From TrEMBL:
GO terms for cellular component: plasma membrane. CDD domains: 7tm_classA_rhodopsin-like. This is Adenosine receptor A1-like. It comes from Paramuricea clavata (Red gorgonian). It comes from the Eukaryota. Its main location: membrane. InterPro entries: GPCR_Rhodpsn, GPCR_Rhodpsn_7TM, TAAR. Gene3D superfamilies: Rhodopsin 7-helix transmembrane proteins. Keywords: Cell membrane, G-protein coupled receptor, Membrane, Receptor, Transducer, Transmembrane, Transmembrane helix.
Length: 289
């Protein structure tokens, strides 16, 4: 978890710096990836340090209910936000491919920010209810497990619709016609297909990482808290969920050429500015001599 925490902070910080320094990335698709990076950084700054502190305290047989509650609440909150953000990415991709005119007209930065704020605010209710009403933890576990299943079904249906539209678009237009239409502001089916596959793969990896959490919550709702839940499901679920935050930025940077190019340009610009500063310093030193 310590190594994963460092990777999470470094990788997501690089992506955020590149996002805010590169104007070409400031579009609806990358906006939600930026929100995902913010969520993952929050995991690296809050959830993982709390989990690491909790594990160190367990080694020395020290238990702190406040620390445990804060750690569990942060894991519930940020893991849910990550899942919902991927869903927002899928919805935005569906609009871009299947409803391109409406996407260009209605999907604005202000509206995206409002939607993201509503999602973050509404999901905040769940960890609050979980710890404010501990008697209903079984119902909470079943509810969260059901939400995960529903979100997965929604994302799967959106991905299938996107792929169907991309396939139909490729069959309808040749390569030159696609390029001509793209220059007119229409859909680039090849590019959209790759972006849709990237989002789908992110979702699959996230589902695999969150699967022990869903199984653990269901087990807890049916059997209650016992040694199997505390020493099998809970450690595995926490570790996989938090490691997923370090995997996300590495994966979509690997899959997206635009992000890789933006990172390369930012790194080269930083190197150039560093060289310029060094040369100016040397010139000043030479003039003084």
């Amino acid at each position: 978890n310590i190594i994963s925490c460092l990777i999470t902070l470094a990788a997501n910080t690089v992506f955020l710096v590149v996002y805010f320094r590169t104007r070409s990335l400031r579009n609806p698709h990358y906006f939600f990836l930026m929100l995902l990076a913010v969520t993952d950084i929050s995991v690296g700054l809050i959830s993982q340090p709390l989990l690491i502190a909790r594990k160190f305290m367990e080694i020395y047989s020290v238990h702190d209910c406040v620390l445990w509650t804060a750690m569990r609440a942060s894991v519930y909150y940020f893991s849910g936000i990550s899942f919902l953000t991927i869903t927002l990415v899928s919805i935005e991709r569906w609009f871009a491919v299947c409803r391109p005119i409406k996407h260009r007209r209605d999907v604005t930065p202000k509206r995206m920010a409002v939607v993201a704020f509503i999602v973050w605010a509404v999901w905040f209710i769940f960890p609050v209810v979980r710890f404010a009403l501990p008697k209903f933890y079984r119902a909470f576990g079943m509810l969260v497990g059901g939400i995960i299943v529903v979100i997965f079904v929604i994302n799967t249906r959106l991905y299938l619709k996107i792929q169907r539209s991309v396939r139909d678009g490729k069959l309808r237009f040749s390569g030159k016609e696609q390029q001509k239409n793209y220059t007119k502001g229409e859909v680039n089916f090849k590019k959209e297909g790759r972006m849709a596959r990237t989002v789908a793969l992110l979702l699959v990896v996230m589902v695999l990482a969150y699967l022990p959490t869903a199984i653990g919550l269901t087990y807890k709702a049916l059997r209650g808290v016992n040694t199997v839940y505390l020493f099998v499901f809970l450690p595995l679920a926490d570790t996989l969920v938090l490691i997923n935050s370090s995997f996300n930025p590495l994966f979509y940077c690997y899959r997206n050429a635009n992000i890789r190019m933006a990172i390369t340009k930012c790194m080269s610009s930083l190197n150039t500015s560093s060289v310029n500063c060094d040369s100016s310093f040397n010139n000043q030193a030479t003039s003084k001599m």
